[in-house]
Design brief:
alpha+beta, six-stranded antiparallel beta sheet, 13 strands, globular
């Protein structure tokens, strides 16, 4: 088999996706996201049977001229094909290096050097390996989702179920939906085609009713629209045609329009736009890094956040989907448009073109110099600190967030940020590392958009002159975002740091060790011979605010490793202040860490004190470890077990004498039994069901000792 069929498929896919992209461009201003999502769903679905459909349709030929200079010679060929001979007649020679465009062809000497290896065979092997890997991943995804479901629990809370039922009725969902809660903080997910499942993070128990409803509406919109099925089809198309970048781009467009369409449904269901935008922001920032199976649909990925926020806040946006008639018309027109593409046969026709080595070398150098993507997205919103804003900048998979004075954000005012109507913003931000060209929009406290960065050659030369090394353009972008420049290097010199190389400098910038962090940590006495300890401190959340807060609460002068330890254990100024408010002051670092590790927090202490237990830390640790909490003590007190000693509470809890057991035994005639007697009964397996069976036989009013003896003898 020659590569010619693959060339046909490559061309057909390109034409189909190009037509879809053109139609998407036309629809972008006048149609809803649901309509555009339908368009891309049809395009993805049409890709799957494309090869099979071509076998049953009459063919029409598309002749593609190919420069002969770009066709690699076939090792072992007797002679090049003469001019005018169709490439289809010499497919092994003419197309062996053109199956996914010529990059795989290597320049060879005309003299054979060993056994010939057909480039077509290599291409087929590479394609097959990639296909198997992606199909295996697709096949394993249901297993990962099943495991995720097994490790979660069904949500039975009446408030959640009521909100779910209301949302199901409102969106017209007909499939039974399973609602699960994970034991970890995963992104809210929807998965499953035959039995849809919605998974919530562990922290969802603390959500407000408004957030619950907004998230449920969004996830149920995926169910109503059959998005999980479409996602599987898109993943299958990407696996089958993985060498074609257009297929991956189409799958991405499908995901973007899918989320916008679901957002439109949530707003159409009555969710306030500003509140819903806030939910998206907080969920994306809280759960964005959490891993999730690829075929599950997460609610808010950070890479799409800016576009979605602007769409949510755009009151003029068209949000209605297509009716049945227009939908059927679009599907019919798309199918009719796909038929000629499926019937196409691509033929490569070599033409003579003289090679221009000088021009090719210049082009290669230009590509190498400008091949890096120096653009990204940004998001800005007011900070809790007056006069400052929270600025998040993303480039590729990286994200850098910091609070900065509003005055540092050139050409952007507080009025623009808080405007209630969409306001476009375009302005440059000049740094010594290079210039950002900012483009975006602001509305109701949220600004977002894109940026492009142009690195400064003078800055690169300055770093090289200082012996640090010449940064790549992508390195300069990272340094500019974190404000790591010559002043930063001077501060390192003054503080006695060893001169970093470019790699370490960029790493510090990417981890948030910026000029402000360096300056503040130096002023607090934390100076190191290398940037590595500062990066470690930053990664563990030890910043100047944390250090000052700890010092204000009596924890001063700790070495760096000790700061990392207590920070990792959750000991912060708020925790120390909370303990002080309930009478625990002057605790050592070890005592604080131990208390935190055992779950002793101000809320627990107050609850126990309210029940009359003013305990030491040792007692608190003991009761906490054994599951004795204020709710347990309160429930026992309601059953007339009051004034119990700590030892009695711990023993009862350890032996399973809980309020439910006490109530059941009281209901069967053992009310007011001393706690130690209940513990003995529990230890010997005497429960309410056993007492009920004895009473059914007429054995009533048995003493505690008698019923234990009968249980020990095995009487049932």
């Amino acid at each position: 088999m020659t590569p010619a069929p693959l060339v046909d498929i490559f061309v057909r896919i390109t034409l189909l996706l190009a037509a879809s992209a053109l139609l998407d461009r036309v629809l972008r201003r006048h149609a809803s996201a649901a309509t555009r999502h339908l368009l891309w769903s049809i395009a993805i679905a049409a890709l799957l049977p494309l090869s099979l459909a071509s076998l049953t349709l009459p063919a029409w030929e598309l002749r593609i001229p190919v420069p002969r200079a770009s066709v690699a010679p076939d090792i072992g060929a007797d002679a090049a094909p003469p001019n005018g001979v169709a490439a289809s007649n010499t497919a092994p020679r003419a197309t062996s290096a053109l199956v996914a465009a010529a990059p795989l062809a290597a320049t060879r000497d005309a003299t054979p050097r060993g056994p010939a290896v057909d480039g077509a065979v290599i291409l087929y092997v590479l394609y097959g390996v990639g296909l198997l890997i992606l199909l295996a991943r697709l096949a394993l995804e249901p297993l990962a989702l099943a495991r995720l479901a097994r490790e979660s629990r069904d949500v039975t809370d009446p408030d959640w179920r009521r909100t779910l039922d209301d949302a199901v009725r409102q969106l017209g969902v007909t499939l039974p939906v399973r609602l699960l809660q994970s034991g970890t903080n995963v992104m809210p997910l929807t998965f499953g085609t035959r039995r849809p499942t919605i998974l919530f993070p562990a922290s969802a128990v603390a959500w407000t009713e408004e957030r619950r409803r907004a998230v449920l509406l969004h996830e149920l919109a995926h169910v109503a629209r059959r998005d999980c099925l479409v996602q599987r089809l898109a993943s299958l198309a990407c696996a089958l045609y993985w060498p074609h970048p257009g297929v991956w781009w189409a799958a991405r467009r499908l995901r973007v329009e899918r989320e916008l369409a679901c957002d439109d449904r949530v707003l159409a269901a009555g969710a306030p736009a500003r509140d819903y935008a806030g939910h998206l922001l907080e969920i994306a920032h809280a759960f964005g890094p959490a891993p999730a199976p690829a075929t599950a649909i997460g609610m808010a990925r950070a890479t799409q956040l800016e576009q979605r926020l602007l769409a949510v806040l755009d009151e003029a946006r068209h949000r209605a989907g297509l009716g049945r008639g227009p939908r059927n018309l679009l599907i019919a027109a798309s199918v009719a448009g796909c038929l000629p593409v499926a019937a196409l046969r691509a033929t490569l026709v070599p033409i003579e073109v003289a090679a221009e080595p000088g021009k090719q070398a210049t082009s290669s150098r230009r590509a190498a110099a400008g091949g890096q993507d120096l653009s990204g997205t940004w998001e800005l919103r007011p900070s809790d600190e007056p006069g400052r804003v929270q600025l998040d900048v993303r480039m590729g998979d990286g994200r850098h967030g910091r609070t900065v004075p509003l005055a540092q954000v050139e050409a952007l005012t507080a009025g623009q940020i808080s405007a209630t109507t969409n306001g476009s913003v375009q302005f440059p931000i000049r740094r010594e590392q290079g210039t950002f060209t900012i483009d975006g929009a602001c509305r109701t406290g949220v600004c977002a958009g894109t940026y492009a960065f142009e690195p400064s050659p003078a800055f690169a030369e300055e770093l090289q002159r200082r012996g640090i090394g010449r940064p790549a353009p992508q390195d300069q972008l990272a340094l500019a975002i974190a404000d790591v420049g010559t002043a930063y290097l001077d501060a390192l010199d003054v503080a006695g740091y060893a001169k970093p190389d470019v790699r370490l400098l960029v790493k510090a910038a990417q981890h948030g060790v910026d000029f402000g962090y360096l300056k503040d940590m130096t002023s607090l006495g934390y100076r190191f011979g290398s940037l590595h300890p500062l990066i470690r401190l930053r990664d563990h959340g030890v910043d100047p605010t944390y250090i000052r807060g700890m010092a204000a609460n009596g924890i001063k002068g700790l070495p760096a490793e000790e700061l990392v330890r207590i920070r990792d254990h959750g000991v912060d100024p708020e925790y120390i202040q909370g303990l002080a408010s309930v009478g625990f002051t002057g605790l050592s670092v070890d005592a604080l860490v131990e208390a935190r590790d055992h779950g002793i927090d101000p809320k627990y202490i107050r609850g126990m004190q309210a029940q009359g237990y003013k305990q030491t830390l040792v007692d608190l640790r003991r009761t906490r470890d054994h599951g004795v909490d204020p709710e347990y003590v309160r429930a026992l007190a309601a059953l007339d077990y009051t004034g119990l000693e700590i030892d009695e509470l711990v023993t009862a809890r350890d032996h399973g004498v809980d309020p439910a057991y006490v109530r059941d035994m009281a209901a069967h005639g053992y009310k007011g039994v001393p706690l130690d007697a209940l513990i003995r009964m529990r230890d010997h397996g005497v429960d309410a069901e056993y007492v009920r069976r004895l009473q059914k036989r007429g054995l009533t009013n048995l003493s505690v000792d008698e019923i234990i003896r009968r249980r020990d003898r095995g009487e049932s």
